[in-house]
Design goal:
Helix content: 25-40%
CATH architecture of the largest domain: 3-Layer(aba) Sandwich
CATH topology of the largest domain: Rossmann fold
Number of domains: 2
Number of helices: 10
Largest sheet: 11 strands, mixed
Number of strands: 11
């Protein structure tokens, strides 16, 4: 791995404003994984004085002519209402603007509708990772959400801390970039989060192809560093000089390794429009990062820079 820290220069970039989040969608299936995600959602809401939409989605009845399927769906909905009521009585949401939503339908269309209607800035979702797959918000379903959402998605994996109040005050933000983010959405979001928290910013670019010629490898490294420098506007007043890391090897391994080496509290990854794939990473690699990361992973779709420019 090669690490370099340089002064940052750019003539075309404008410094983003500190991040602003007004509406948060927190998806829950009442499992331990989604309970952990709820803790992070509430922590973010307190930090940004945002409103939380705590949402449970009930799958529609299968094979409508069969009465048993219909009544099963009804019972699931009633059980969800009881669990929502229990949460409200516990007082966990007392200091936060909130609304509970019990929706019926296929997962993604229901989520997409809520994102649009409630003008959601951030979706928070939990995953069990590789160890188990349940009914609603586990495993590959969480991946569907962060790959398709038109807004930022914060995914809470099984390796994350049980103390979201401290983790959601990130002191070290890791931006993993493929340098193909023409709209600079992910870098703007990472910079905005670092500005708000006076946090250290680490920028990582992974070169996956192996080059035996040292001269060519060094040219690639220097070219990558130059492009990474251009991600950060010259008028950006970060708390400290950003650290630029160029590494060669497995993308997932190096993102996870860098996060642990620098003690990153938050990992930010950009998504490409259309493909909705995390940076230059195959979806399986991106999913591995989400599932094994020691900290929350914030995925940013291309073209939402305006979300971090609103005060």
């Amino acid at each position: 791995m090669t690490t370099a820290t340089k002064s940052v220069k750019s003539l075309q970039r404008i410094a983003p404003e500190p991040a602003s989040i007004k509406n948060i969608l927190c998806l829950t299936d009442f499992s331990p994984a989604s309970t952990a995600a709820r803790g992070y959602a509430l922590s973010v809401a307190r930090r940004f004085e945002a409103k939380v939409y705590l949402t449970h989605i009930v799958a529609p009845p299968i094979a409508a002519p069969r009465p048993a399927a219909f009544y099963e769906g009804v019972s699931v909905g009633e059980e969800a209402k009881k669990k929502f009521n229990a949460l409200l009585h516990e007082g966990e949401l007392n200091d936060i603007q909130h609304e509970t939503i019990l929706a019926e339908g296929s997962l993604w269309p229901a989520v997409d509708k809520i994102i649009t209607e409630k003008k959601i800035d951030l979706v928070v979702v939990g995953t069990h990772g590789r160890k188990g797959f349940g009914k609603v918000m586990l495993g590959s379903v969480a991946e569907e959400v962060y790959r398709k959402a038109s807004c930022a998605v914060l995914t809470i994996g099984p390796e994350n801390s049980a103390n979201p109040e401290s983790e959601m005050r990130p002191q070290r933000v890791l931006l993993a970039t493929d340098l193909q983010d023409a709209a600079h959405s992910a870098s703007d979001y990472a910079i905005a989060m670092a500005l708000r928290q006076a946090a250290e910013l680490i920028v990582l670019h992974v070169i996956e192809d192996q080059v035996s010629d040292f001269g060519r490898a060094e040219q690639q490294r220097l070219a990558s560093l130059a492009r990474m420098e251009g991600l950060i506007p010259p008028e950006t007043h970060l708390a400290c000089e950003p650290t630029m890391v160029v590494a060669r090897g497995s993308a997932a391994d190096l993102i996870l390794q860098t996060a642990r080496t620098y003690g990153a509290d938050l990992i930010v990854i950009g998504l490409h429009a259309g493909k909705r794939m995390a940076g230059h990473l195959p979806s399986s690699v991106a999913y591995r990062v989400v599932c094994q990361a020691p900290s929350p992973v914030l995925t940013i779709p291309r073209g939402i820079a305006e979300c971090v420019r609103s005060a």
